[in-house]
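dumping this here before i forget
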Amino acid sequence: MPKPLIFNSSPLIYLTKVSLAHLFKEIPEEKFTTTGVFDEVVREGKRKGAPEALLVEGLFGEKIIRIRDPEDNEYLKFLKRVSAEAERQPLHEAEAEVLCVARDLNGIAITDDQIARSVARLLRIELHGTGYVLGRMFVTDKIGKDELIGKVREMRDEGWYVAPEDYLSIIEYLKKL
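structure:
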């Protein structure tokens, strides 16, 4: 059985901004996020007038993505402590929640946040970024490779930030699919 995907905010926002929201339903894995991410993307997005907020909200309404919160608040605190001590930077609440739920469900955290990625590696929580989701979209045969590569560039134009080496890795990964 495939591992569920647990989304942080940036992948949801930017994949939706470039008109890929419809492909979430094509990805066979169960998809979750947390209340904190939902609040950030949908509630705060709607308050700010972000057009993608309504599209992401629709994914929840159709139960394509479901909300699941951490089961263990002590582990949530532990994650934030590890981040503060090992990374010398705080892990945001929503990212910590995503990592907790990934651990709870033996799933895959989906985030591009460097601190969350580092903490996940330290604690052996499986994690991938937006590039992985793009690859999962590609294997549905609903979008071509060249179009996906164009969408990565479009996401950068929309303000999506990944380190330059990660950006190049994503492009190379997609070219090899």
